Amino acid sequence: LELRLEGVVDPFESSYLTDEIDGASEEGFDAILLTIDTPGGLDSSMRDIVQSIMTSDVPVICFVSPPGARAASAGTFILTACHVAAMAPGTEVGAAHPVGISGVIQQDKATNDAAAFIRGLAEERDRNPDWAEDAVRDSVSASADEALELNVIDYVADDVRELFVAVDGEVVETATQTVTIDTTSARIETRT
Length: 192
Known about the structure:
This protein is an alpha/beta fold. The chain has helices spanning 11-24, 43-54, 74-81, 104-124, 129-137, 144-149, 160-167; strands at residues 2-6, 32-37, 60-64, 70-72, 84-87, 92-94, 141-143, 155-156, 171-173, 178-180, 190-191. It is built from 7 helices and 11 strands. β2, α2 (43-54) and β3 form a beta-alpha-beta unit. The mean pLDDT is 94.
């Protein structure tokens, strides 16, 4: 099942993605490909999407694509939560510091909350928790190659075909089972 996160992470995108992710297992899909190009968005909408990914029975493969795309701010959390995280060359991830909250105390609380949240996601997926926290606290960003070198993501791939070759045979832990990803004869159903 191919889903796309394009534009701002808002309640509309959240509803579309959570409904599709939550229903993927019942519909018999073996995996979800989530293509990401987002500047970020609402914390509440991002957390709904992350929760669906974390509780999914079906592996979610996130791919920041095409070249020029980004998984910024809320997109960084979503990419980090995915069972497999990949980026195309010429893409970026990071700059996840919370914005839009007034007041120093509230800002500190929001930053600390977001830092703990993304650190936990990175640890759950065996990725770099220090970089993830820096993306929140210091708004650091990384290119695809840098993200791979820093263990922020799992793969860099030019396109979906190359990504599917790379992830074939990877073993991931979903919410309820251990799954070996099989993309050798994958048929993609795209929903927008």
